[in-house]
Amino acid sequence: MDQLPVLHFGTLVAVDDPVTEGPDLGSKEIGRAQDLFLMKEREFGIVSGTGFFRFVKGYAVMETEFMDSANLRAVLKLNVTVKHN
């Protein structure tokens, strides 16, 4: 089996890491990461937000551009499409 055990059906993973504007540790925090970084590309639905993005609907595709497992850091690329009423 070539999948990581963490990707098996029924496995729960909790992630709440800071997402910053850039790769520098001092970059402004713009959100919290709550999905798996071990997958190269993943898509997820957006059903709401906060502030200006309250009540939005849409989807996002997140790609892992670089992973530094030893230091628990990653560079991610996000493509987000939302509809705001």
TrEMBL record:
Transmembrane domains' residue ranges: none
Q: Which domain of life is it from?
A: Eukaryota
InterPro entries listed in its UniProt record: Dirigent (IPR004265)
* Subunit and interaction comment: Homodimer.
Its function, per the record, reads:
Dirigent proteins impart stereoselectivity on the phenoxy radical-coupling reaction, yielding optically active lignans from two molecules of coniferyl alcohol in the biosynthesis of lignans, flavonolignans, and alkaloids and thus plays a central role in plant secondary metabolism.
Family of the protein in this entry: Belongs to the plant dirigent protein family.
Q: Which organism is it from?
A: Tetracentron sinense
Q: Quote the protein name from its UniProt record.
A: Dirigent protein
Q: Per UniProt, what is one Pfam family of this protein? A: Dirigent
Keywords (alphabetical) are: Apoplast, Secreted
User: What would be one Gene Ontology cellular-component term for the protein?
Assistant: apoplast
Q: Where in the cell is it found?
A: Secreted, Extracellular space, Apoplast
Q: Which residues form a coiled coil?
A: none
